[in-house]
Amino acid sequence: MKAVIFDLDGVVVDTAKYHYLAWRKLAGELGFEFDISHNERLKGVSRMESLNIVLETGGVKGLTEEEKQDLADRKNRYYLQMIQGIGESEILPGIPEFIAGLKEKGYKIALGSASKSGGMILEKLKLAGVFDAIVDGNLVARAKPDPQVFVTAAEFLKIPCENCTVVEDAKAGIEAAKAGGMRCVGVGNREMLKAADIVVDSTAELKGLIEVL
Ligand code: B16
Ligand code: MG
Q1: What is the pLDDT of residue 151?
Q2: Residue ranges of the chain with per-residue pLDDT less than 70
Q3: pTM, rounded to two decimals
Q4: Distance CA 48, CA 198 (A)
């Protein structure tokens, strides 16, 4: 029995743009501009780690843990407002066909997302029912590049890690998959994702990989 474990943001749906817009709004309120060139570093990493990166780019230092928590909560409120209306039209190209092809071949599929909103977003995309296991940021304590999110998904599926392939768009996620002893398909920039076993430019190409997984 084999499985494919999907990252959410950047693989199933392009929520990265909403994370970026929410961080940019917060940065603006703090008096600096959060530039898109730093956005790649936020992909796949936890909310608090993302906040630390955003504050670093703005040269903001010396905040207490409580102040940081307030800022992270504020960003999350903006993010939740922005994704309120998200729906099936925002599922990334080729994902429904890739999932259907995997199911046809008898693969199990799981979600392995760092986002605490992961499960809720899958519901909004009307995809929750097709996943055999859903692991999001509410179920794990250690953020990517720690493999916990993917290993937990494999445990839920009762499939050994070496029979799992992770699909990821972030460097931290690829490191996590490798640390968990899984194969990994990267989606996006070849140079940045070079630690993956296979890299494709876009989710539209995933279906073509089913035979080689
Ligand atoms: P939240 P993924 C990740 O999702 C995002 O890529 C990352 O930018 C975000 O900080 C993280 O989820 C936490 O999200 O603030 O909603 O809990 O790529 O692992 O699906
Ligand atoms: Mg991602």
Answers
A1: 98
A2: none
A3: 0.95
A4: 30
Known active-site residue 197 = no
Query: Looking at residue 119, what is its pLDDT?
Result: 96
- Kindly list the strands in the beta sheet with 133-135, ordered across the sheet, starting from the edge strand earlier in the chain: 133-135, 108-112, 3-6, 164-168, 183-187, 198-200
Question: DSSP labels for 33-64?
Answer: ---GGGGGGGTTS-HHHHHHHHHHHTT-----
User: Best of 52, 113, 131 to mutate for ligand 1, by most ligand atoms within 8 A of CB?
Assistant: 113
Quick check: is 9 catalytic? yes
Q: Taking the mean position of all CA atoms in its chain, how far away is CA 192?
A: 16
- Nearest ligand by distance to the CA of 137: 1
Which of 2, 190, 209, 186 has the alpha carbon at shortest distance from 94?
Answer: 209
Give the residue carrying structure tokens 């997984």: 213
What is the whole-number distance in angstroms between the Cα of residue 173 and the centre of ligand 2?
Answer: 7
Q: How many residues does the chain have?
A: 213
Residue 50 beta carbon below 6 angstroms from any ligand 1 atom: yes
Question: What pLDDT is stored for residue 194 in this prediction?
Answer: 96
Centre of ligand 1 to C-alpha 31, Å, is 24
- Measured in Å, residue 112 CA sits from the centre of ligand 2 at 9
Q: Which residues pair with 109 in a beta bridge?
A: 4
**Confidence at residue 107, expressed as pLDDT on a 0 to 100 scale:** 98
